[in-house]
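Risk mitigation, structural track. In case the binding assays with iron/sulfur cluster fail to produce interpretable data, a predicted complex structure has been prepared as a fallback.
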Amino acid sequence: MLFKTVSKDEFEKLVGIMLESNEVVAPTRVESDVHGDPIHEYLPVESFDEIDLNYETTAHSAKTYFLPYRENLSTYTFEAGDWGQEIGYRAMPRILLGLHACDINGLLKLDKVLARDVFPSPYYVSRRQNTFVVGIDHEPCDGGFCHAVGADTVTHGFDLFLTDLGETYLVEIKSSRGYSMLGQVKTQDVSDADTQAFKAVRHRITEQFTTDLDIQDLPNLLDMEFESEVWTKWGEKCLSCGSCAMSCPTCYCYGVEERASMDWKTGSKSKRLYACTIVDFAEVSGGRNFRPDRKTRLKYRFYHQHRGFVESYDEPKCVGCNRCGRACLVGIHPAEVIGDLQREERL
Ligand code: SF4
Ligand code: SF4
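Fallback model:
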């Protein structure tokens, strides 16, 4: 692990260098909400001025740059008794700038499923390997509970990680390509004063978390509360819209669709992200739906996040960003649902 400091002017120069030969995706202010608060999204930028590194969160996560909502998996041609198949992966370099720790942790969870498990996805792996990740520390966002699920700090999964020390950034260098990239601008060794300033920033951030949630025993609690009325209470509110899963940095469920032209000369196979709260998610051929009601679908979403994933990978899938809570039109916030279950258990 190597640390350097870089002045903000030099960092701006570095972003200019990045833009010369890469697509750069960064937090950008796109609109304001009804209270006048800014709404940000990760979007491709053409200049440093478009970037807002002081953003609170983004409406959608950066997963779309690794798992697009819709992507073509392969195309086919059938001619003269033979057939051909074309499969393309993205190999163009991309820089994802200004990711928060929870979102980098989200990528690490996706890596476990899509890059390191029994059937790695070459589509995901090619994007992940060709994406240079620059993280940044930030103040806790409203309703976020990343600290409760251990996702408020990150130790790997990025190339460079910035902590704002005022006039400079303290930069953690995590890869050789990160080292080479940073080497293109002037940097300084870390002084004792920088170390003290870094500790003060980390302390200030930790002190600001207000969501009081303890998930230590949650997998067992979920086992015990499978039939709880809490699922009816929240499930009856759910609109089955799927916005929670679409905005979530770690939801990866998808459906595959095959199409053929009317003359049977061409065909394609495409993939679409799907959400477990949508009405036909568990429908099988013949019309049987294993999760026909809203409360069961909502419950299974929580079970995948906090029970099934723990069993497979020893950690929850959720990184506590609360994007699902913000996206939900009827106010289903994960911390409140979990809090309800914990209160019921204490009764
Ligand atoms: S379930 Fe909600 S809080 Fe957890 S990672 Fe997904 S969007 Fe964030
Ligand atoms: S966003 Fe809310 S209403 Fe929509 S499916 Fe998710 S929990 Fe249900």
